[in-house]
Design brief:
Elements (H helix, E strand, L loop, with lengths): L3 E6 L6 H10 L5 E7 L10 H12 L5 E6 L3 H8 L3 E6 L2 H17 L4 E6 L9 H9 L20
Parallel strand pairs: 1-2, 1-4, 2-3, 4-5
The chain binds adenosine-5'-diphosphate.
Adenosine-5'-diphosphate binds next to α1 and β4.
Length: 157
């Protein structure tokens, strides 16, 4: 049976921290589905189609990695795509506390589902989408924080 993991997040935008988690997890799972949680009422910096486009740019030559979006519960997406694993990255103890509650509630709602956490590489601990957005807002250079395969000029108009 193939092991499918869903990697849910906002990915606004996708960073080298996210990319690293996916590549490391690719050793553990047969398929990784990166799933952008989309909320019509929540204003994102990049549109859903821009975020889908960026992530597809990164993994276009990696058939093991798929990209999708969802507007319901992560566990419902997992059921739909036959995933038994949720993948999340852990940067800090604050991440841990937040993730613990979500994972335990998910487990209560879908007992067959396992949440799998990967510790961030030390050099990625301080990289997060919020800071990248802030730098972008003031026209700063974020190329160090974004996968090299994303050409931001394509998305920043
Ligand atoms: P969310 O809004 O769901 O936290 P994010 O896009 O911020 O979505 O993050 C998605 C996942 O990627 C989360 O599990 C988060 O912990 C992880 N992540 C974010 N930044 C990094 C990073 N620099 N290194 C490793 N994992 C990260």
């Amino acid at each position: 049976m193939s092991k499918i993991a869903v990697f849910p997040g906002s990915f606004d935008p996708f960073t080298i921290g996210h990319e690293s988690i996916v590549h490391r997890a690719a050793e553990l799972f047969d398929k990784i589905i990166i799933a952008i949680g989309h909320n019509e009422n929540k204003k994102a910096f990049f549109t859903l189609s821009q975020r889908l486009g960026m992530i597809k740019d990164v993994f276009q030559n990696e058939p093991q990695v798929e990209v999708t979006h969802f507007e319901d519960l992560t566990i419902d997406l997992c059921r739909r795509v036959g995933a038994k694993y949720i993948l999340r990255g852990l940067r800090t103890s604050a991440d841990f506390e937040y993730e613990r509650a979500i994972a335990q509630v998910n487990k209560m709602m879908y007992p067959e589902l396992e949440s799998v956490f990967m510790l961030t590489l030390p050099e990625h601990t301080s990289i997060n989408s919020t800071i990248v957005r802030e730098v972008l807002k003031y026209k700063g250079d974020v190329s160090k924080f974004i996968p090299a395969s994303i050409d931001l000029n394509k998305y920043l108009k």
